[in-house]
Amino acid sequence: MSLLVQKDDKKYTYAEYLKWTDGQRWELLDGIAYNIAAPSRRHQEVSGELFYQIRSYLADRPCKIYSAPFDVRFSGPEQEDEQTWDVVQPDLTIICDQSKLDDKGCLGAPDLIIEIISPASIGLDYVTKLALYEKYKVNEYWIIHPLDNTVMVFTLGEDDQYGKPHIFIEGSQLKSSVFTDLTIDFKQLFGL
Fold first, then answer.
1. What is the pLDDT of residues 137-159, one digit of tens each?
2. Residue 125: which domain range?
3. What sequence ranges are listed for the domain Putative restriction endonuclease (predicted)?
4. Number of domains composing the chain
5. Cα pseudo-dihedral 70, 73, 93, 8, rounded to 10
6. What is the value of pTM for the model shown?
């Protein structure tokens, strides 16, 4: 099992992050840099299948899906790169507002973020990123557990808070509140 590696105790901005040339993948969470380990084969299979299913669903829609590495920058309005402390590379990101897209990735909250759990990322995905995505009002956040074949779906409520997640298991039909007619084939997703 690989462990999550923090760069050091210093806080970094997105402007500094852009200058790194070490060939590693990093995320900034409140300015703290975390190294993203290479995903497992199982992780890649689930990610690839999910990308395929969602990309097929979005074919005639204005929304775009991106897979990691793809920077999603969270910052306040009018903030420069030097003032941006939160940059993530979700496994999958769906954005419908094209004005949020630029050559660096996405600036602002995507409509849907999907993280696929790895042993090293559990704490970040379930706690830190959940709070971050809620803070910046990501409409829906999926946490996929590829070993248990489960999906947890957090949806932003009218109070701009994530309520109790919906949990989807083998045999259930995954539903999204953002894309109400999207269905995910669990057999295909998890190779069941």
1. 999 999 999 989 999 999 999 99
2. 39-190
3. 15-184
4. 1
5. 60
6. 0.93
